[in-house]
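Subgroup meeting minutes
Present: P.N., E.W., G.H.
Scribe: E.W.

1. P.N. recapped why we're keeping a running log of single-chain structure predictions: easier to compare across weeks, and new members can see raw inputs and outputs side by side.
2. G.H. added today's entry (306 aa).
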Amino acid sequence: MSEHDHEKEHEAKTEESSRDLIRSRIISKLQDIKSFPQFVLETMRKLNDPDSNVADVAKSLSRDEGLVLRVLKLANSAAYGVSRNISNIQDAVSLLGYKSVSNIILAASVYSAMDKGLAGYALDRGELWRHSLMVAYVSRHLAQNTGKVSADDAYVGGLLHDIGKVVLNDYVRFGYGIIVKMVEEQSIPFTQAEMQVLGFDHAMIGDLLTEKWGLPDAYRVAVAYHHRPNELPEDKQNYQPLLDIVSVANSLCLMLGIGIGADGLQGYMYPEPLERLGITDFEGLMADVIDFASEVSHDAGFTSGF
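Output recorded in log:
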C-alpha cells in the first residue's frame, strides 16, 4: 500500500471516529431533553381517556396558569362566537372540546423548545416556531379540504414535524460547512447531507424525541417521514394520508420562504402525495397558504406568552 493510500485510510478512520463521537453525543443530548411535565402527561392521558370527564380535565389543567389563560382566551375568541364571557375553565373545556385543548397543551409544551435561534440551520429566534406553526395551519387546511384525516391530527403533525432540529442543531452547526458544500456540489437534499455527515437527520431525531415523549404513532410517523413521504413501511400505511398532508404543507412553506433555513436548500415537492390527496389546483393552494401568513404571524406572537 502506498503512502498516499495509508493517508487516505487514516483520514477515513479519523472521519468515522469523529462521526461515532458525534453520534454518541447526539444520543446523550437526546436523553438530556426533558419530557413533558408530569401534569401535562396526566392531562393528556385524561383527554384521551373515554371514561374521564370535563371536571377531571379542568382540575388537571388548572395546575398551570399559563395554559388556563390560553384556553380561556381561545374560548372567548371570535372563532367560537359565544355571546357571554367564559371565565370558568370547565366551561371552556366543554366549549372547545378535548382535541382542541390537547392541541393547546402540545403547542405550549413544544413552544419553549422551539422558540430559540438555531444557528446550525441558519434560523433566527422564532423562525422555527413560525415555520412549524405555518405548517400546522396549512396541514389543518389540507385535512379540512381533502377529508382524508382529522384536522386536529394534521395540525399537531405539522406543529411537531421539525422538532428534531432542536436536538441536532449544535451538531449541524459543527458540520455546517461540510453539509452545505455537499448540498451545493452534489445537488442533494440537506437531510441527506445531514445523514452522511452526522449519521442522523433531524427527522430521525424527531422520531426518537416524540417516542420519548410518549406521543401517538401517527405523529411519530409524520415527524419521521415528512421528507420521505413515499418510503412509509407497509405496517404503517394507515398513516399515509397524514404523512402526505404534513409533507405537502412543509414543502409549500419552504417554497414560499416561510421559516426557510439552511435545510431549504434543494427542497423538493414530491408529486405522489399531491396525487394521493387528490390535489389538482396547486396554484389555488399556494394562494391559500399565502393568505395564512398574516394569521400565523399574529398567532406566533400570541403564543409567545408561554
